[in-house]
Amino acid sequence: MAGTPGNAKVERKVAHLVPKRWGGRKARMRGLARVFGDLVTRAAVVNLDRLGALGVHWDGGAWVAGP
User: Fold this and answer.
1) Residue 63 bridge partners (DSSP)
2) Distance CA 53, CA 66 (A)
3) How far apart are CA 3 and CA 40, in angstroms?
4) What is the pLDDT of residues 33-67, one digit of tens each?
5) How far apart (Å, rounded) are the C-alpha atoms in residues 57 and 34?
């Protein structure tokens, strides 16, 4: 069960959230609220980076896909 293709996708996404430059899997600060806020911020950065790679942008009134 450890070798299923779905696991590779999940592990890749987890790896994007916990890169070494941010301390790896260690918390950068103390306190559950702060650690949760840090995780949410990193998830937002990963999502925005992905949207940029897909060419999605704000057109003043709506999100538009493509160039």
Assistant:
1) 58
2) 10
3) 28
4) 887 888 888 888 888 888 888 889 888 889 898 76
5) 30
